[in-house]
Amino acid sequence: MANIVLRNLHSLVQKRLLATLPTPTSALCSSFTVEYLLKSCGLPLESAISTSKKLQIDKKQTHRIDSMLKFLKSNGFDDAQIAKLIAKCPTILHYKVRNNLEPKFNFLIENGFLGQNLPELVLLNPAVLTRSLDSHIKPALQFLKKLLSTNDVLAAAKRSSWLLNIDSEGTIQPNVALLQSEGVPFDVLTKLIVFQPRTIMQNVDRMAYAVRTIKNLGIDPTDPMFVRALRVMISMKESTWKRKIEFFKSYGWSEDDILSVFKRQPFCLACSEEKLGRLMDFLLNTVKLEPETMIANPTLLMHAFEKTVLPRYNVFKILVSKELINRDNKKLTWLITLGERRFLDCYVLKYLNEVPDLLEIYHSSKEGTIEIP
Protein backbone atom coordinates (compact mmCIF):
# COMPACT_ATOMS: atom_id res chain seq x y z
CA MET A 1 0.00 0.00 0.00
CA ALA A 2 2.84 2.38 0.94
CA ASN A 3 4.57 1.70 -2.40
CA ILE A 4 1.38 2.54 -4.28
CA VAL A 5 1.08 5.85 -2.41
CA LEU A 6 4.71 6.72 -3.20
CA ARG A 7 4.31 5.85 -6.88
CA ASN A 8 1.17 8.01 -7.06
CA LEU A 9 2.99 10.87 -5.35
CA HIS A 10 5.94 10.54 -7.70
CA SER A 11 3.57 10.57 -10.69
CA LEU A 12 1.73 13.63 -9.36
CA VAL A 13 4.97 15.51 -8.78
CA GLN A 14 6.18 14.77 -12.30
CA LYS A 15 2.88 15.90 -13.81
CA ARG A 16 2.96 19.17 -11.86
CA LEU A 17 6.54 19.82 -12.85
CA LEU A 18 5.89 19.00 -16.50
CA ALA A 19 3.20 21.66 -16.43
CA THR A 20 5.36 24.32 -14.77
CA LEU A 21 8.91 23.79 -16.01
CA PRO A 22 10.23 24.39 -19.56
CA THR A 23 11.04 20.80 -20.60
CA PRO A 24 10.29 17.23 -19.49
CA THR A 25 14.00 16.71 -18.79
CA SER A 26 14.18 19.59 -16.31
CA ALA A 27 11.00 18.35 -14.71
CA LEU A 28 12.43 14.87 -14.18
CA CYS A 29 15.64 16.34 -12.77
CA SER A 30 13.60 18.36 -10.26
CA SER A 31 11.35 15.53 -9.14
CA PHE A 32 13.85 14.31 -6.52
CA THR A 33 14.09 17.83 -5.05
CA VAL A 34 10.31 18.09 -4.82
CA GLU A 35 9.94 14.65 -3.24
CA TYR A 36 12.66 15.46 -0.70
CA LEU A 37 11.02 18.75 0.18
CA LEU A 38 7.70 16.95 0.59
CA LYS A 39 8.83 13.94 2.58
CA SER A 40 11.84 15.19 4.55
CA CYS A 41 11.08 18.89 4.95
CA GLY A 42 7.29 18.81 5.22
CA LEU A 43 6.49 21.40 2.55
CA PRO A 44 3.06 21.29 0.88
CA LEU A 45 3.12 20.24 -2.77
CA GLU A 46 2.67 23.71 -4.29
CA SER A 47 5.33 25.16 -2.01
CA ALA A 48 7.70 22.28 -2.75
CA ILE A 49 7.33 22.79 -6.50
CA SER A 50 7.86 26.54 -6.15
CA THR A 51 10.92 26.04 -3.93
CA SER A 52 12.40 23.48 -6.35
CA LYS A 53 12.62 26.22 -8.98
CA LYS A 54 14.96 28.21 -6.71
CA LEU A 55 17.37 25.41 -5.81
CA GLN A 56 18.15 21.80 -6.60
CA ILE A 57 18.98 19.06 -4.12
CA ASP A 58 21.37 16.32 -5.12
CA LYS A 59 21.09 12.89 -3.47
CA LYS A 60 24.66 13.32 -2.24
CA GLN A 61 23.57 16.39 -0.25
CA THR A 62 20.77 14.79 1.72
CA HIS A 63 22.97 13.57 4.58
CA ARG A 64 24.20 17.12 5.25
CA ILE A 65 20.69 18.57 4.89
CA ASP A 66 19.27 15.92 7.22
CA SER A 67 21.85 17.01 9.79
CA MET A 68 20.77 20.64 9.34
CA LEU A 69 17.10 19.71 9.84
CA LYS A 70 18.02 17.76 12.96
CA PHE A 71 19.94 20.79 14.21
CA LEU A 72 16.89 23.05 13.75
CA LYS A 73 14.69 20.61 15.67
CA SER A 74 17.24 20.46 18.49
CA ASN A 75 16.90 24.24 18.76
CA GLY A 76 13.15 24.33 19.16
CA PHE A 77 11.89 24.38 15.57
CA ASP A 78 8.87 22.15 14.99
CA ASP A 79 8.02 20.58 11.62
CA ALA A 80 5.66 23.39 10.59
CA GLN A 81 8.25 26.07 11.44
CA ILE A 82 10.96 24.24 9.49
CA ALA A 83 8.70 23.97 6.44
CA LYS A 84 7.85 27.66 6.70
CA LEU A 85 11.51 28.64 7.06
CA ILE A 86 12.56 26.60 4.01
CA ALA A 87 9.72 28.09 1.93
CA LYS A 88 10.79 31.62 2.94
CA CYS A 89 14.53 31.00 2.68
CA PRO A 90 15.29 27.92 0.53
CA THR A 91 19.03 28.59 0.58
CA ILE A 92 19.12 27.56 4.23
CA LEU A 93 19.25 23.99 2.91
CA HIS A 94 22.76 24.73 1.68
CA TYR A 95 23.96 26.28 4.95
CA LYS A 96 26.56 24.43 6.96
CA VAL A 97 25.64 23.83 10.56
CA ARG A 98 29.10 24.09 12.09
CA ASN A 99 30.34 27.11 10.13
CA ASN A 100 27.12 29.11 9.82
CA LEU A 101 24.10 28.18 11.89
CA GLU A 102 25.67 26.86 15.07
CA PRO A 103 27.78 29.95 15.97
CA LYS A 104 24.85 32.30 15.32
CA PHE A 105 22.34 30.17 17.21
CA ASN A 106 24.72 29.79 20.16
CA PHE A 107 25.28 33.56 20.35
CA LEU A 108 21.55 34.33 20.14
CA ILE A 109 20.75 31.72 22.81
CA GLU A 110 23.47 33.10 25.09
CA ASN A 111 21.86 36.53 24.74
CA GLY A 112 18.34 35.52 25.71
CA PHE A 113 16.71 33.99 22.64
CA LEU A 114 15.61 30.89 24.50
CA GLY A 115 12.78 28.45 23.81
CA GLN A 116 10.46 29.69 21.07
CA ASN A 117 12.10 33.12 20.98
CA LEU A 118 14.76 31.77 18.61
CA PRO A 119 12.43 30.19 16.02
CA GLU A 120 10.17 33.24 16.17
CA LEU A 121 13.05 35.62 15.47
CA VAL A 122 14.40 33.52 12.57
CA LEU A 123 10.95 33.08 11.00
CA LEU A 124 10.21 36.80 11.23
CA ASN A 125 13.41 37.52 9.33
CA PRO A 126 15.35 34.55 7.93
CA ALA A 127 17.83 37.04 6.46
CA VAL A 128 19.38 37.30 9.92
CA LEU A 129 21.01 33.93 9.12
CA THR A 130 22.71 35.46 6.08
CA ARG A 131 24.32 38.29 8.02
CA SER A 132 27.81 38.19 9.47
CA LEU A 133 27.91 37.25 13.12
CA ASP A 134 30.93 39.42 13.89
CA SER A 135 30.16 42.51 11.81
CA HIS A 136 26.37 42.72 12.18
CA ILE A 137 24.65 40.48 14.71
CA LYS A 138 27.14 40.80 17.59
CA PRO A 139 27.66 44.59 17.45
CA ALA A 140 23.92 45.27 17.17
CA LEU A 141 22.91 42.97 20.01
CA GLN A 142 25.76 43.99 22.31
CA PHE A 143 24.96 47.68 21.82
CA LEU A 144 21.25 47.16 22.47
CA LYS A 145 22.00 45.26 25.68
CA LYS A 146 23.86 48.31 26.99
CA LEU A 147 20.58 50.24 26.80
CA LEU A 148 17.86 47.65 27.32
CA SER A 149 17.01 44.67 29.48
CA THR A 150 17.12 41.25 27.83
CA ASN A 151 13.31 41.16 27.62
CA ASP A 152 13.22 44.58 25.97
CA VAL A 153 15.90 43.54 23.47
CA LEU A 154 13.77 40.51 22.59
CA ALA A 155 10.67 42.71 22.21
CA ALA A 156 12.47 45.21 19.97
CA ALA A 157 14.01 42.47 17.80
CA LYS A 158 10.62 40.80 17.35
CA ARG A 159 9.02 44.09 16.32
CA SER A 160 11.77 44.64 13.78
CA SER A 161 14.05 41.66 13.34
CA TRP A 162 16.10 43.71 10.86
CA LEU A 163 17.45 45.41 13.97
CA LEU A 164 20.08 42.68 14.05
CA ASN A 165 20.77 42.78 10.32
CA ILE A 166 21.77 46.33 9.64
CA ASP A 167 25.11 48.01 10.20
CA SER A 168 24.73 48.95 13.87
CA GLU A 169 27.84 51.12 13.96
CA GLY A 170 26.72 53.06 10.88
CA THR A 171 23.07 53.62 11.82
CA ILE A 172 21.72 52.58 15.23
CA GLN A 173 24.63 53.78 17.34
CA PRO A 174 25.04 57.25 15.79
CA ASN A 175 21.27 57.80 15.77
CA VAL A 176 21.02 56.92 19.46
CA ALA A 177 24.03 59.12 20.22
CA LEU A 178 22.41 62.04 18.36
CA LEU A 179 19.15 61.76 20.29
CA GLN A 180 21.02 61.49 23.58
CA SER A 181 23.12 64.56 22.75
CA GLU A 182 19.95 66.52 21.94
CA GLY A 183 18.57 65.76 25.41
CA VAL A 184 15.91 63.13 24.69
CA PRO A 185 15.29 61.55 28.13
CA PHE A 186 16.79 58.08 28.51
CA ASP A 187 13.49 56.40 29.41
CA VAL A 188 11.80 57.98 26.39
CA LEU A 189 14.66 56.87 24.13
CA THR A 190 14.55 53.28 25.36
CA LYS A 191 10.78 53.12 24.86
CA LEU A 192 11.30 54.37 21.32
CA ILE A 193 13.80 51.59 20.63
CA VAL A 194 11.55 48.91 22.13
CA PHE A 195 8.24 49.94 20.59
CA GLN A 196 9.33 51.72 17.39
CA PRO A 197 12.78 50.31 16.55
CA ARG A 198 12.49 51.24 12.88
CA THR A 199 12.84 54.90 13.88
CA ILE A 200 16.48 54.46 14.93
CA MET A 201 17.28 52.35 11.87
CA GLN A 202 17.05 55.32 9.51
CA ASN A 203 19.86 56.91 7.55
CA VAL A 204 21.87 59.13 9.93
CA ASP A 205 21.54 62.21 7.70
CA ARG A 206 17.78 61.71 7.57
CA MET A 207 17.63 61.47 11.36
CA ALA A 208 19.68 64.68 11.71
CA TYR A 209 17.35 66.48 9.27
CA ALA A 210 14.24 65.33 11.15
CA VAL A 211 15.65 66.39 14.52
CA ARG A 212 16.66 69.80 13.17
CA THR A 213 13.27 70.37 11.53
CA ILE A 214 11.29 69.45 14.64
CA LYS A 215 13.44 71.66 16.86
CA ASN A 216 12.89 74.55 14.41
CA LEU A 217 9.14 74.04 14.86
CA GLY A 218 9.60 74.76 18.55
CA ILE A 219 9.31 71.24 19.98
CA ASP A 220 11.97 70.68 22.62
CA PRO A 221 13.70 67.27 22.68
CA THR A 222 12.79 66.94 26.36
CA ASP A 223 9.09 67.23 25.49
CA PRO A 224 7.40 63.79 25.23
CA MET A 225 5.80 65.04 22.01
CA PHE A 226 9.25 65.32 20.40
CA VAL A 227 9.61 61.58 19.85
CA ARG A 228 6.08 61.35 18.40
CA ALA A 229 6.88 64.15 15.99
CA LEU A 230 10.17 62.42 15.14
CA ARG A 231 8.38 59.19 14.25
CA VAL A 232 6.06 61.07 11.89
CA MET A 233 8.80 63.15 10.31
CA ILE A 234 11.03 60.09 9.79
CA SER A 235 8.18 58.19 8.16
CA MET A 236 7.69 60.59 5.24
CA LYS A 237 9.75 62.20 2.53
CA GLU A 238 10.17 65.96 2.42
CA SER A 239 7.91 66.04 -0.66
CA THR A 240 5.21 64.13 1.25
CA TRP A 241 5.44 66.57 4.15
CA LYS A 242 4.99 69.51 1.77
CA ARG A 243 2.02 67.79 0.11
CA LYS A 244 0.35 67.29 3.50
CA ILE A 245 0.81 70.98 4.29
CA GLU A 246 -0.83 71.92 1.00
CA PHE A 247 -3.65 69.45 1.68
CA PHE A 248 -4.60 71.16 4.95
CA LYS A 249 -4.24 74.58 3.34
CA SER A 250 -6.85 73.50 0.78
CA TYR A 251 -9.34 73.38 3.68
CA GLY A 252 -8.52 76.93 4.67
CA TRP A 253 -5.95 76.22 7.35
CA SER A 254 -2.96 78.52 7.63
CA GLU A 255 0.54 77.13 7.96
CA ASP A 256 0.57 78.28 11.58
CA ASP A 257 -2.65 76.31 12.17
CA ILE A 258 -1.11 73.19 10.66
CA LEU A 259 2.10 73.45 12.66
CA SER A 260 0.10 74.12 15.82
CA VAL A 261 -1.83 70.88 15.25
CA PHE A 262 1.37 69.00 14.46
CA LYS A 263 2.99 70.11 17.71
CA ARG A 264 -0.01 68.92 19.73
CA GLN A 265 -0.95 65.81 17.72
CA PRO A 266 1.84 64.88 15.29
CA PHE A 267 0.13 61.71 14.09
CA CYS A 268 -2.54 63.80 12.37
CA LEU A 269 -0.06 64.44 9.58
CA ALA A 270 0.72 60.72 9.35
CA CYS A 271 -2.87 59.89 8.38
CA SER A 272 -3.61 59.33 4.70
CA GLU A 273 -5.07 62.20 2.74
CA GLU A 274 -8.00 59.98 1.79
CA LYS A 275 -8.91 59.38 5.44
CA LEU A 276 -8.36 63.00 6.42
CA GLY A 277 -10.36 64.29 3.47
CA ARG A 278 -13.33 62.07 4.25
CA LEU A 279 -13.31 63.08 7.91
CA MET A 280 -12.87 66.78 7.26
CA ASP A 281 -15.57 66.85 4.58
CA PHE A 282 -17.97 65.14 6.98
CA LEU A 283 -17.14 67.31 9.98
CA LEU A 284 -17.29 70.54 7.97
CA ASN A 285 -20.24 69.86 5.66
CA THR A 286 -22.46 67.41 7.55
CA VAL A 287 -21.72 68.09 11.20
CA LYS A 288 -21.10 71.79 10.47
CA LEU A 289 -18.09 72.08 12.74
CA GLU A 290 -16.02 75.21 12.40
CA PRO A 291 -12.43 74.74 11.19
CA GLU A 292 -11.30 76.34 14.44
CA THR A 293 -12.94 73.50 16.39
CA MET A 294 -10.93 70.88 14.51
CA ILE A 295 -7.74 72.89 14.90
CA ALA A 296 -8.39 73.14 18.65
CA ASN A 297 -9.25 69.41 18.87
CA PRO A 298 -6.95 67.59 16.42
CA THR A 299 -7.70 64.20 17.99
CA LEU A 300 -11.00 64.40 16.08
CA LEU A 301 -8.99 63.59 12.96
CA MET A 302 -7.38 60.51 14.50
CA HIS A 303 -10.57 58.46 14.77
CA ALA A 304 -11.89 56.00 12.18
CA PHE A 305 -14.80 57.43 10.22
CA GLU A 306 -16.89 54.26 9.83
CA LYS A 307 -16.12 52.70 13.21
CA THR A 308 -16.19 55.75 15.48
CA VAL A 309 -17.13 59.14 14.07
CA LEU A 310 -20.24 58.22 12.05
CA PRO A 311 -21.75 55.75 14.59
CA ARG A 312 -21.30 58.22 17.44
CA TYR A 313 -22.72 61.04 15.38
CA ASN A 314 -25.77 58.85 14.72
CA VAL A 315 -26.22 58.36 18.48
CA PHE A 316 -25.80 62.10 19.00
CA LYS A 317 -28.52 62.86 16.44
CA ILE A 318 -30.96 60.45 18.08
CA LEU A 319 -30.37 61.89 21.53
CA VAL A 320 -30.79 65.43 20.21
CA SER A 321 -34.01 64.49 18.36
CA LYS A 322 -35.42 63.02 21.60
CA GLU A 323 -34.39 66.22 23.41
CA LEU A 324 -32.28 64.17 25.80
CA ILE A 325 -29.23 66.34 25.14
CA ASN A 326 -28.71 69.73 23.52
CA ARG A 327 -27.19 70.13 20.08
CA ASP A 328 -23.84 71.50 21.10
CA ASN A 329 -20.77 71.05 18.93
CA LYS A 330 -18.56 71.12 21.99
CA LYS A 331 -20.52 68.19 23.38
CA LEU A 332 -20.27 66.39 20.04
CA THR A 333 -16.51 66.90 19.98
CA TRP A 334 -16.28 65.46 23.49
CA LEU A 335 -18.55 62.57 22.57
CA ILE A 336 -16.43 61.56 19.57
CA THR A 337 -13.13 61.67 21.41
CA LEU A 338 -14.22 59.71 24.50
CA GLY A 339 -12.89 56.21 25.15
CA GLU A 340 -15.29 53.47 24.07
CA ARG A 341 -16.27 52.36 27.59
CA ARG A 342 -16.91 55.94 28.72
CA PHE A 343 -18.91 56.70 25.59
CA LEU A 344 -21.14 53.67 26.09
CA ASP A 345 -21.74 54.54 29.75
CA CYS A 346 -22.42 58.24 29.20
CA TYR A 347 -24.29 58.28 25.88
CA VAL A 348 -25.77 54.84 25.23
CA LEU A 349 -26.45 52.79 28.35
CA LYS A 350 -27.53 55.88 30.25
CA TYR A 351 -30.44 56.45 27.85
CA LEU A 352 -31.68 52.90 27.24
CA ASN A 353 -34.88 53.54 29.19
CA GLU A 354 -35.75 56.43 26.87
CA VAL A 355 -34.36 54.78 23.69
CA PRO A 356 -34.46 50.99 24.26
CA ASP A 357 -32.86 50.10 20.89
CA LEU A 358 -30.06 52.68 21.12
CA LEU A 359 -27.35 50.08 21.80
CA GLU A 360 -28.51 47.97 18.84
CA ILE A 361 -28.61 51.04 16.60
CA TYR A 362 -25.09 51.98 17.67
CA HIS A 363 -23.65 48.54 16.97
CA SER A 364 -25.50 48.26 13.65
CA SER A 365 -24.15 51.65 12.66
CA LYS A 366 -20.59 50.51 13.49
CA GLU A 367 -21.11 47.48 11.27
CA GLY A 368 -22.43 49.64 8.44
CA THR A 369 -25.84 47.96 8.38
CA ILE A 370 -27.89 51.02 9.32
CA GLU A 371 -27.84 54.66 8.38
CA ILE A 372 -29.58 57.34 10.46
CA PRO A 373 -31.23 59.99 8.25
TrEMBL record:
Keyword Ligase: no
This protein's UniProt keywords: Transcription, Transcription regulation, Transcription termination, Transit peptide
Gene Ontology MF terms in the entry: nucleic acid binding
Gene Ontology biological-process entries: DNA-templated transcription termination
InterPro entries listed in its UniProt record: MTERF, MTERF_sf
Top-level lineage group: Eukaryota
Disulfide bond in keyword set: no
Gene3D superfamilies in the record: Transcription termination factor 3, mitochondrial
Family to which this protein belongs: Belongs to the mTERF family.
PANTHER family from the UniProt entry: CGI-12 PROTEIN-RELATED (PTHR13068), TRANSCRIPTION TERMINATION FACTOR MTERF2, CHLOROPLASTIC-LIKE (PTHR13068:SF31)
Protein name: Transcription termination factor MTERF6, chloroplastic/mitochondrial-like
